[in-house]
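Hi all, posting the design record for the shared folder.

TITLE: backbone redesign
STEP: 1 of 1
STRUCTURE INPUT:
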């Protein structure tokens, strides 16, 4: 069993790294991409949308130079909103038909989105289509957490989830640098980056096809596809999602959870899921919006080029990898909420420092705290979710968790880009940092209930 877990985690994490390198290549290119389409769009869609933004801008007297921030926020929100809609269906589909076929379908859709991206050099409409298909196909991350849960024991699950976190960090180390380097080296805004992303997606599809074996036995699968489709409805209604309505037959009174090395009584596992879900949602709602506009802050305030943006993401990625590889994977079972609270406490001053930064030293201090939070909060909360609920619904539970993340990432960029666009970066980042006190309070409350 241990060998199977190691082998499966290796395949899943390798696939995730390849996927995330391709996915994150675009991050440092966003400012230049929107500058490119402002003058090079044969479809006319960008000019039409920009005209509508200008009308609204004149109405509320927002600064015109920040229009591209607003565009980027809405594009990012659209991608995550589609991921929010599709992830529950992909997770439920995998509970019935298995993880392997679901993962392959997801990766094939991602490949098609990169192919469309490579043809979008002079068409903003095609670029938007590629982001649409990419959002609908982005189910491999939630599937990866379900796969790791399938093959890991409760004691080893935190360490296994940390490996997924390491894969994310490696992706963030190499992807933005590849994107920035290719754009800088070959002199194209994004054409060669899209070609390389297509190559990586093709490689990933074949790698998973030949290397990954099914991890969900037939006797543990949900029997009815109709039931899963009905459950998927619960995933796209926010209040049903936050109440974990789709989770059935969960243990009630007398359930136990490991906490601080010992078993503590809790009223229900379902309450743990609900409270952890709320914390996860509120954290990512604020975090994702500010994270998404970070490249615009450094571009506008410090005149960072795509290459400098890539180096910034490289710095954050290296820190995240070290923290997850050395620290997070060594966390003892039951200490996840404590470490998550450390991560939340670090993100509050992080965004305030970034928002007020006037030089690179101050920015680096803020990014260091940001990297610690990025490396700890999500893996720890995901581990808490994965240790609660029936075995045959792990995919459902983690699908809900990932959908909460997608919903937060759909709303976050809209909120932050609107604030950034209307009031500027300082108020946006300082206000967002202070609001992160709210999920920290919720987390402290959950920890108190578990003592």
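Okay, here is what came back for every position:
SEQUENCE:
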């Amino acid at each position: 069993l241990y060998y199977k877990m190691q082998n499966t985690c290796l395949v899943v994490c390798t696939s995730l790294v390849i996927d995330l390198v391709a996915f994150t290549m675009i991050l440092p290119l966003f400012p230049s991409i929107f500058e490119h389409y402002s003058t090079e769009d044969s479809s006319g869609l960008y000019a039409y949308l920009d005209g509508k933004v200008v009308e609204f801008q004149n109405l509320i007297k927002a600064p015109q130079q920040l229009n591209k921030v607003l565009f980027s926020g809405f594009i990012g929100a659209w991608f995550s909103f589609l991921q929010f809609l599709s992830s529950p269906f992909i997770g439920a589909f995998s509970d019935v038909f298995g993880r392997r076929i679901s993962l392959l379908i997801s990766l094939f859709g991602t490949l098609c989105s990169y192919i469309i991206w490579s043809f979008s050099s002079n068409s903003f409409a095609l670029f938007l289509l590629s982001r649409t298909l990419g959002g609908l196909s982005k189910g491999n991350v939630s599937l990866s957490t379900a796969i790791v849960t399938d093959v890991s024991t409760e004691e080893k699950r935190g360490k296994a989830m940390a490996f997924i976190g390491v894969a994310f960090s490696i992706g963030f180390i190499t992807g933005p640098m590849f994107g920035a380097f290719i754009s800088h080296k070959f002199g194209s805004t994004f054409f060669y980056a899209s070609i390389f992303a297509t190559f990586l997606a093709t490689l990933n599809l074949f790698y998973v096809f030949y290397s990954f074996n099914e991890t969900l036995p037939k006797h543990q699968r949900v029997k009815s596809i109709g039931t899963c489709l009905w459950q998927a409805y619960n995933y796209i209604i926010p209040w049903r999602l936050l109440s974990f309505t789709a989770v059935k037959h969960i243990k009630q009174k007398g359930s136990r959870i490991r906490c601080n090395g010992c078993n503590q009584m809790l009223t229900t596992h379902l309450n743990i899921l609900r409270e952890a879900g709320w914390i996860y949602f509120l954290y990512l709602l604020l975090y994702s919006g500010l994270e998404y506009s970070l490249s615009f802050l450094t571009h506008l305030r410090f005149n960072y080029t795509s290459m400098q943006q890539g180096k910034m993401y490289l710095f954050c990625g290296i820190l995240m990898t070290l923290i997850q590889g050395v620290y997070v994977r060594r966390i003892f079972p039951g200490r996840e909420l404590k470490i998550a609270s450390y991560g939340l406490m670090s993100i509050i001053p992080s965004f305030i420092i970034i928002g007020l930064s006037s030089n690179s030293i101050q920015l680096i201090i803020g990014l260091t705290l940001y990297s610690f939070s990025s490396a700890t909060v999500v893996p720890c909360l995901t581990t808490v979710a994965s240790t609660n609920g029936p075995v045959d619904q792990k995919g459902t539970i983690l699908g809900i968790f990932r959908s909460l993340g997608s919903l937060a990432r759909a709303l976050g960029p809209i909120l932050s880009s609107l604030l950034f666009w209307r009031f500027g970066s300082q108020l946006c980042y300082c206000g967002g940092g202070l609001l992160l006190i709210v999920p920290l309070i919720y987390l402290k409350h959950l920890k108190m209930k578990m003592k």
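COMMENT: Residues 252-267 have pLDDT under 50 and may be disordered.
Let me know if anyone wants the other runs.
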